[in-house]
Amino acid sequence: MSGSPRAAPVRVVGAILLLLVAVTGASLVDPPASAQAPAPEPAPAPLTPSAPAVPTTLPAPGPPTITSEGVKITRNVVTSQLPNLGGTAPMTLTADIYQPSDTTPAPIGGRPAMVLVHGGSWFQGEPANLDRFGELFAQQGWVSFSVGYRLAAPDRPSYPDAVGDVQRGIRWAGANARVYGAEPSRIGVIGVSAGGHLAAMVASLGTDPILTGPLSSPFGAPAVPDQNPPVQVKVVATLSAPFVLNELAPTQGRAPFACGANEYCQKFWTIPIITNLVGCELKDCKQVYDDASPTNRVNDRTAPMWMANADDEIVPMGQMQLMGDALRASRIEHDIFVVEGRTHADEYTDRAWNVMVPYVADRLGVPRPQPVAFPVKGDGPGGGFTFVLSLVGVLTLLATVGMALLSQRDGGSDGRPSAPRPVVAGSGRQSGGGTSTDDLVRARGPSAGARTTP
Hints:
Blueprint: H1 7-29, E1 65-66, E2 72-82, E3 91-99, E4 111-117, H2 131-139, E5 143-147, H3 161-176, E6 182-192, H4 194-205, E7 235-239, H5 263-269, H6 273-278, H7 286-291, E8 305-310, H8 317-329, E9 334-339, H9 349-364, H10 384-406, E10 429-430
Parallel strand pairs: 4-5, 4-6, 6-7, 7-8, 8-9
Antiparallel strand pairs: 1-2, 2-3, 3-5, 9-10
Helix pairs in contact: 3-4
């Protein structure tokens, strides 16, 4: 039976489509040789202590983003490239750079270069987290470099390499400051939360030599050379920084003694965050905890420090007190500032900024900028506790790993004090051998020589 005259073209088209489907299906089942995956390359040779140098080169700046205030933000500028460490892929460290608008006058003596170190409990965060700091500094005529560093993981501790990465970022900022309109002889560092811990370490270590260690590499990571010269840091500021790690380590799943009755502190530090950072528990490696504590690194070359903490937040006030004691013992100029409430780190920027910046400006040798008019707002329902809740999802993994480790703990001594240090609420200024932090107010009310904020 014959079809209509129009049926033939339809059959032809149908045949062509069937042919294409057949060819495509065959290629998916058995792709031609030219489409098959190439043979795997030979595995790279294990890393040896004589790993080749990886030079730090000046990157070509990308097009900046201009904010409504005229601030120029350049994202993801490469500051250094680390070689293959422990069988992992080479790693690139980057920074976000914040420059004032062309119409913002430079301070007398040149624009300072502020290196910003983000927080995130040492295992998360990125340079963009400190956009607000970078923009505020740019609006007052300063240049900022928010630097990245290696983050910790349960199977890959980042201490001491994260400290070394911050040192590299500071050296890169010094070497490239003039490219972005800053004066390399006026470099300060500001760190928030975990970034404050890293900044405080650099305050005493300086930027030469760069601190590296074997913990992040099964092969024993060698020191990675850096072609940028060392930089002298003029001043360091920290907000809610942990300074004494062994006092924040939990014991058999219980909250650290240093938290006292502070529920926000208890909830946060019960999670094995510091174990994740250093790669071991306090009872097994107390010396590592001591070495990673800024209080034990203070020396007569430590940079002047400004420190802030809230009196009911996740980082106990005793941490700042102990750092103040260490600085006073070495006659290092420093200042402390207490914020009432539960807010943590950059959450209280509005209340700390106009106190911190004048201190930093004086040590950088530039005029104090005009105070910033921040909108008035309350402390909020949770502050630091809200910060804790925001981390629960990511920290669940750490808690699982930590609980497995905690279940193996014995009841032996871990070298920690048997009782918490008294919580201090207040603020005092020390320059060299000035007022001791032991003389600070021990209640929320103000007193002579003490500063509190509403």
